[in-house]
Fold this sequence. Notes:
The structure holds two protein chains of two kinds.
Chain A: E1 3-9, E2 18-24, H1 33-46, E3 69-70, E4 73-74, E5 96-100, E6 109-111, E7 114-115, H2 118-127, H3 147-157, H4 164-168, H5 175-186, H6 195-209, H7 218-222, H8 230-244
Parallel strand pairs in A: 1-5
Antiparallel strand pairs in A: 1-2, 3-4, 3-5, 6-7
Helix pairs in contact in A: 2-6, 3-5, 5-6, 5-8, 6-8
Chain B: H1 17-24, H2 30-33, E1 37-41, H3 45-57, E2 60-64, E3 82-83, H4 95-105, H5 112-132, E4 157-158, H6 164-182, E5 185-188, E6 191-199, E7 202-210, E8 216-220, E9 223-226, H7 247-254, E10 259-260, E11 265-271, E12 294-298, E13 315-316, H8 318-322, H9 332-344, E14 356-359, H10 361-367, H11 369-387, E15 396-405, E16 408-409, E17 422-424, H12 442-462, H13 476-494, H14 501-516, H15 522-542, H16 553-577, H17 601-604, E18 606-611, E19 620-625
Parallel strand pairs in B: 1-2, 1-9, 2-5, 9-17
Antiparallel strand pairs in B: 3-4, 6-7, 7-8, 10-16, 10-18, 11-15, 12-13, 12-14, 14-15, 18-19
Amino acid sequence: MHVKLHVWRQAGPTTPGTMETYDAPGISEEMSFLEMLDVVNERLNADGQEPIAFEHDCREGICGSCGMMINGQAHGPQRGTATCQLHMRKFQDGAEIFIEPWRAAAFPVLKDLIVDRSAFDRIVESGGYITAPTGAAPDANLTLIPKEVADAAMDAAACIGCGACVAACPNSAGQLFTAAKINHLNLLPQGQAERYTRVQKMVDTMEEFFGSCTNHGECQEACPKDISIDFIAYMNRDYVKAQLKNRKLLSQD
Amino acid sequence: MIGSLDSNVPPGSMGDKWTQHKFDMKLVAPGNRRRFDVIVIGSGLAGASAAATLGEQGYNVKVFTYHDTPRRAHSIAAQGGINAAKNYKSDGDSVHRLFYDTVKGGDFRSREANVHRLAEVSLDIVDQSVAQGVPFAREYGGLLENRSFGGAQVSRTFYARGQTGQQLLLGAYQQMMNQVHAGSIQLHTRSEMLDLVVKDGAACGVIVRDLVTGDVTRHSAHAVLLCTGGYGNVFYLSTNAKYSNASATWRAHRRGALFANPCFTQIHPTCIPASDEFQSKLTLMSESLRNDGRIWVPTNPDETRSPDLIPEDERDYFLERKYPSFGNLVPRDVASRNAKTMVDEGKGVGPLKNGVYLDFAEARDRIGASTVYERYSNLFDMYQRITDEDPTKVPMRIYPAVHYTMGGLWVDYHLMSNVPGLFVLGEANFSDHGANRLGASALMQGLADGYFVISYTLANYLADHLGNQPVPLDDPVFNEAQQSVDDRMKRLLSIGGTKSVDHYHRELGKIMWTYCGMARDKAGLETALREIPALREDFWLNLRVLGDGPMNQSLERAGRVADLLELGELMVRDALDREESCGGHFREESQTPEGEALRRDDEYSYVAAWEWGGVGAAPQLHKEPLTFDSVHLSQRSYK
């Protein structure tokens, strides 16, 4: 295959960036998208040009490191697929491919295709956990969890924190990520004690960094783990309830 | 300079050692814990669980990870599950059986007392994880579901679809972030440890580079915990993540920590075969697939038909044929070697004839296609994305790949290295898996070390240092360490050669895989011992690292590959020294008439702990003898 790349190059967080064009002949369709970039980088290095900086680690779609806008789509054209698992066979020979970093004010560019996603950690830090210090846990089978509940929690917990949802959203909203994190815990019996404080803190922290959700649904389309926007509805429900709940009466529900 | 190695295994019967020792060890009172600073390097299962636990207990913890967030550590990619001796299936499991299976699975090259403790605390890990909200698979009645893994005849593996590592890591990460919020943990992301600082023989701090700003900083503490994973990327192609590297442990080794059993590497049997020369990594398909998948090759090496057209009597289900009791669930080393034998005999399948079939047709008929798909959905999807083939219709093609390293820094029963104050947890240490790790045991060990061992043994060490201040950052030992870090980076940037970091990494990988991979012999290892130093010399003469900005991925990789070029040589030396076959270490010269690994207990029942001797110089071997009181040493048989 022979493809032509247009890649965002930016030397640092405060320097202006530009789109650069690179010709990439001799690409195998068996290559993953990142292996194609590896080849381009090896050629750049051989030509004395600095390779394109991009994040990647596990290359099996689970660590959430990789992510770029490919022809305007977060993670590219294949549904439910992170950039590292996208293969060149999904592109036509002779294709022009535009590669840009995630576009969101909450994710400032650090270099080339690398952005700073630490706002996600701030959301988790504010309440994305069940307080269960090491050592005090009861037997694992003490609490029965219906299979449907465990499955739903797992559907939410599958989030890899890549940021595609934010990048795909016209408002750069962080709802899908935040809702996935909240519902993983709020759906489970173990998560009930902190359910309403959790949703309140995490949503409030989210609002400090991200835009507002207007139900476009682009996040769900872009998510490499097919996380459903239903979780956003559950989150909103819990958030509204959290404003009204008398926390002293929680165990009487 | 190093005397005899004392494993510090406490006295008493095997079942009572840990319980009694927990009482005998010294404590640090809650009010005194804030007077101790502890550095944790790495935020995978071991690092995150240790940091969270120590933070909760009141220590001042600093965590460093080179990732942009702690949740990206490679523990996240573990698929199949975590073992625990809960015996929820009432099928004969017990702490003793998990202990026994693990020692036997490791081919009797692990330290018995450490393994017993691991089996004991396995029970607590599952309890802790569930309390945190890890969404393990459930039965319809709401109880926890289990499945079985290689090397075991009981169902003791807890799992969260094919993403168990992800869910356990998120649990530990969230528990840690709770402590970041509470202020007991200072978290430094995108920060890579580049050297260990040692004063008067004891670990006192680290030198760290900020990967965004390029700033190199000094950090001092009463103890340093390395939780930095394994060194499988020495082979270039492995199931490890691309950033996984050995620099933290290797830098500690160069500062005096012994490196134990470096040649013990695990080749995982079920990975997707390489498709072309540009392959950048190999992808694991969880061992859990062997619960329902049957492994076979065509009996005819010239077979050209598609697998569904090959009749039963022209298929060789070689694992079921050779190992009727364990069948497709033999341990990883046995499954891998047998797959290699088939491919070597020319019976490999796929366009490059470099794989064997893993077939779900029988399971489809038995439990239905939808149940099979539900059990392994994310694996099937992943396989299809990579190969463009649908495993619900055609058999998967699999082949062994480097997956895990059982070797690592030497630690005693307290998880402390021979350098006082330097503790090593998880895959980075050597202690629990011997010469072969059983499936679903890596997650167990990382979390055992972090949640349930280190807080006791660290307190025992720190108790003697109450009132001591950390070494000041302007101490000459910090000056020297920072200078050497700066010098090395300048040198890497100024070579001005023509070849890329990846070039050298690939070349090193080829040497390691060819001569120190699934099968090893003296002549090959000696060849490697000539080729690696030559490659390393070429690296320092002809490497090209471009870029003058602070953020420089080529520079990061160059430092890591430079370390692997030294570590690879040590692995080869260790493999050469161990003239026996055991677990993942198969010396062609030492095999039974049936081609199984032949151990030589009389001569090699020891941990080989190597002391750094300088670049290119012979390291010094220290031996920790292994004795077995509670298990009977036998030639492993899975027939």
